[in-house]
Amino acid sequence: MTCQLRILTTLWAGMAIAACPQGTTATAAAGRPPNVILFYIDDLGWKDVGFMGSTYYETPHIDRLAGDGMVFTAAYSNGPNCAPSRASLMSGQYTPRHGVFTVGNPARGDDRFRKLIPIANRTVLPDDSVTLAEAMRSAGYVTATMGKWHLGPDPATQGFDVNIAGGSWGSPGRRGYHSPYDYPRCKQTEPGEYLTDRLTSEAIRFIEQHEDEPFFLYLTHYAVHTPIQAKADLTAKYEAKPKTSAHFNPQYAAMIESVDDSVGAVMSQLEQRGLTEQTVILFTSDNGGHGVVTRMTPLRGSKGMLYEGGIRVPLVVKWPGQIGAGSRCDTPVIGIDLYPTLLEITRSPIPDGCSLDGQSFVSLLTRSGELKRDALFWHFPAYLQANPGMDVPFRTTPAGAVRMGDYKLIEFFEDGRRELYNLADDIAEQHDLSKREPKTAERLWTRLQSWRKAVNAPVPTERNPKYDPTAVWSAPQDRTTRSP
């Protein structure tokens, strides 16, 4: 907000025909930049859709979207839980730059088992962050967010013209998915309405109202975050369906189908209004799936961990005229890349004087080149308590990670322990190579340290005076109603 956007010296309309790549639609070539719809699903795991291999969850509309666009098999979120991933998406910056490291209190779990005092956490995206919405609005887009915000009390202060149901909270909580509920510009006093359906209706209304101007729609469903609440008819359908060892929860499956119905309804609206060919659609998740209700097999771990199951997410991009149908890309990309990618797709100016850590992957979408960077990074200097059934007190202790090529190194700050994996040979992260390949481990650790220094990443070192090495851990009772 404090940074100014560079003014384009040449209007987009005047340069569109001359600079437009082969295959661009007639409408865009005539001068209108493409619309953008970003489906950002909460807690949807890497394998929780049909196009990634699930046979239990049914996602025909999302699968059709994947068939029309490019699937990224190694897409990552910037954090293992909601808020940091969303802050990085909106700012285009790694977590140490904006200070949103986790959800709420970084000292989660029992004091007796925390060896360190975690780094203080921000819960509001700083005002000096120029958001993706602000950048696109300054380029002439009307902007809307529908659903979860989780980065402050009002996304209207961060570049959105329209806010439906977004605020500082991270889940429906006591409001639940079934009405009656009361969100900003999303109130229903009569019972029977399902929140995912309502947000979809609001999205369709927004498209109707703004079909004659370029728009950015951030459709950020609360689903499939806990509480696990679904429509009864869909739940009954999955109760009767054979389950797998990884996918087994009928209500969770029904929540996914409601999200899929949302994608289908929005795509149908675009088709009815002749907007399909001039609309870029992205579909992804903010972190790995909640380990109580789903599994990311063969990936290790789940939401709240820096193992692949906590940070690898599904990603589809559909860009008519530019991406071959049914394309796949194995190059690693990360949440902060979406900001510069969308600016390049829409020919929007880069925020002047602001540092973007991500890299546009338009060259991957158009098969015109490769990304020129050596590594991806994660920094999580906080604690997250264990999921039910875990035999340790934390899903994660403070940690950081780096991926370079096929190798990934995780460093745990409590004791300096490091784990090294070759993801090409061991996507399940079962074979720690740190002792077998010490030079590789040292190379990745050195790169991770240099990155931390470059972005001023704070590492916790202060010992927790309440830590009790004699305390005995007792696993929590099974529950599926919360996943903070």
Summary, kept brief:
The protein has helices at residues 12-19, 26-29, 60-68, 82-91, 95-98, 132-138, 195-209, 232-239, 250-272, 308-311, 338-346, 362-365, 438-455; strands at residues 35-41, 70-76, 142-147, 162-164, 181-183, 186-188, 215-220, 279-285, 312-318, 327-329, 333-334, 376-380, 384-385, 394-396, 399-404, 407-412, 418-422. With 484 residues, it is an alpha/beta fold.
Please identify which CATH superfamily of the largest domain we are dealing with: Alkaline Phosphatase, subunit A
Tell me the CATH topology of the largest domain: Alkaline Phosphatase, subunit A
From the N-terminal CA to the C-terminal CA, the straight-line distance is 29 Å
Give the SSE string: HHEHEHHHEEEEHEHHEHEEEHHEEEEEEH
- Beta-strand share of residues: 15-25%
Rg over alpha carbons: 22 Å
**Residues in helices, as a percent range:** 25-40%
Number of strands: 17
Supply the number of helical segments.
Answer: 13
Number of domains: 2
CATH C-level name of the largest domain = Alpha Beta
Task: Outline the low-pLDDT stretches.
Answer: 1-29
Shape from CA axes? globular
Structural class: alpha/beta
Assign the CATH architecture of the largest domain: 3-Layer(aba) Sandwich
Indicate the mean pLDDT: 92
> What's the story with the biggest beta sheet?
9 strands, mixed
